[in-house]
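Q: Predict the bound structure with magnesium ion.
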Amino acid sequence: MTENIEEIAEKYKVVVRDLMKVYKRGRKEVIALRGIDFEVSEGEFITIVGPSGSGKSTLLKLLGALDKPTAGSVLFDGHSVTLLDDYRAMMYRRRKVGFVWQSGNLVPGLTALKNVMLPMNLAGAPKDKSQERAEMLLTTMGLSKRMEHKPNQLSGGENQRVAICVALANQPELLLADEITGELDTETTDMVMKSVRMINEQFGTTVVNVTHNDRVAATADRVLRIRDGLIEGQKHTIYGEMTEVDAKGRVVIPESVRKLANIGKRVVLEITDRGLLMRPLETHLEEDEQS
Ligand SMILES: Nc1ncnc2c1ncn2[C@@H]1O[C@H](COP(=O)(O)OP(=O)(O)OP(=O)(O)O)[C@@H](O)[C@H]1O
Ligand SMILES: [Mg+2]
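A: Predicted complex:
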């Protein structure tokens, strides 16, 4: 049974399908993601947990159009993020997405206020408007008395809360957070995660948070566990398999996949916007007769 991706895309803010990422280093290949599927509702706050090297940061980069997948798709409001050209990808990052990393989010020489104003000024907002919004965000985060401090005059938790304000400057619909509490103690971690929850509730921002800390994960609406580039509990017999194409274009399809996909001696090939579709000849004819 094939799913109706358009119907699904209408229901969710973000839809991830069959997402694969293979990094090539010289002749060596690292398969970071092996076929990831999930959806995020508008206004939902999800956490992705998994051991080091399981593909969490890779996944977040693909959600934020900072990199392109090897295969598969990310849909945002029903539109493919993965097919965007460089300019549109930049606009998507600037207008729709806010990023917070473990550290190094802030410009060291600028005050907290100037740091938060920066992305708005870069996007062409008038100075008084960007100052007003920066002050509002910092106040919401309990930092009204820290606006004129520079990053090295702020605590770790304060720095991360300023970083969240920076990420929210241009009113993103999606907040992507990668191990933002990784360098913080337990108490400060709780405070920062409370701030993320508050942003999620107050502004309706959809949040995808990455961590390997189970305590942090527990603050989310839903937890996805990722291991070796796959979401735990998902069967991915087909998309997890890598196979070679030889010089004559011959592809070896493993027997297990042939059985699952009901592939016999002949297949029909179709180029779709999600890649090359291969299906049994019989199914194709039946559908043609119906239409
Ligand atoms: N630019 C790159 N080039 C080659 N391999 C990479 C690259 N980035 C990541 N990898 C590899 O891809 C796999 C997944 O990496 P990723 O950074 O997504 O893991 P992670 O879950 O974020 O780990 P951590 O919790 O340590 O941050 C790892 O094996 C990593 O070595
Ligand atoms: Mg990482």
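A: DSSP finds ten helices and twelve strands in the chain.
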